[in-house]
Design brief:
alpha/beta, D-Maltodextrin-Binding Protein, domain 2, 2 domains, 10 helices, globular
């Protein structure tokens, strides 16, 4: 089965699964906890991804009494469909998967994590440290590994960086591999399958920590700053519930009995706080990036399936 067909089948299966799910009225009680779904970032296990966020949601539960049922989506697209089908109340998105959910009227921002006064992270195009690629222009005629087509930092931002460098990713690359996750892309690079890989810098650090790749073998060729992956709410939630959730995440770091190490964000890293007083404007750079990258997304998927 081609990669394009595989993606279509997987998305259809995820959509059928979530639309068949039994809807329930969530109120944050132990019997009807708020339903949370996380995008499968970094290609880690579902248990590992849940473990990254369990301390945060546990802190909110301890501070407020609100309860949460946390799951990991099978794909980025599956999480979009889950919130748009009213199967979940809260989602953790990548910026590029949040934008279409918001544009469809399904999701609005809840909070983003803050560390050192910033709410940003970095996508990068990586190369082998001892390789021949020294600039983005050197990738003309070369090969590139990318993650999920809905991923901001392992697909959208790397493709954008190539376009800004004057390359046509569809026609100027000899081969594109779309292999599902940051970690897979980084491993393909280390194993010599490609000349470069797109992933977040956080994902590289996590892959090194997990032993998926070796420290010192991979270097940053170019990087792009991005707004942090947000927590988002279903737009159909009552206004009073939205206000309660925003207040809970905005103040959890100050709540009595909450240890600083419980406040965690993308990749399970410890952060200073979550900020809920945020504007949709923070996602504008991603909206702009998608306008440039989306028109060639399907062409890249087809190229990868050749």
């Amino acid at each position: 089965m081609s990669l394009l067909k595989t993606i279509v089948v997987a998305t259809a299966a995820a959509t059928m699964s979530i639309t068949a799910a039994m809807a329930q009225h969530a109120d944050g009680s132990t019997d009807a906890p708020y339903r949370v779904m996380l995008v499968p970032a970094d290609g880690g296990t579902a248990d590992g991804t849940i473990a990254d966020f369990t301390p945060l949601f546990g802190a909110v539960t301890e501070a407020t009494g609100l309860n949460f049922d946390i799951k990991v989506g099978q794909s980025y697209g599956g999480v979009i469909e889950a919130i748009c089908s009213d199967v979940i109340d809260i989602a953790w998105f990548g910026p590029a998967s949040y934008v279409p959910a918001h544009q469809r009227g399904c999701a609005e921002l809840l909070a983003v994590d803050v560390k050192g006064g910033e709410s940003v992270y970095y996508s990068a195009i990586f190369t082998a440290k001892d390789g021949h690629i020294k600039s983005l222009e050197d990738l003309k005629g070369g090969t590139l590994a990318l993650g999920d087509p809905n991923s901001t930092s392992s697909f959208v931002a790397p493709v954008l960086m190539l376009k800004k460098a004057g390359l046509d990713p569809v026609n100027d690359l000899a081969k594109v591999m779309i292999i599902g996750s940051h970690s897979n892309a980084l491993q393909a690079l280390e194993q010599g399958q490609v000349d470069a890989a797109g992933a977040s810098i956080s994902s590289l650090n996590k892959a090194i920590k997990q032993g998926a790749v070796t420290a010192g073998n991979i270097q940053v060729l170019a990087k792009q700053v991005l707004p942090n992956p947000p927590l988002a709410m279903n737009t159909g939630l009552p206004d009073e519930v939205k206000a309660t959730l925003r207040a809970a995440f905005d103040s959890v770091h100050e709540a009595e009995g909450i240890a600083p190490e419980m406040i965690r964000g993308y990749g399970g890293k410890q952060v200073d706080a979550y900020e809920a007083d945020i504007s949709e404007d923070m996602m504008q750079p991603v909206v702009d990036a998608l306008e440039l990258v989306s028109p060639i997304r399907e062409d890249l998927i087809r190229k990868a399936s050749e």
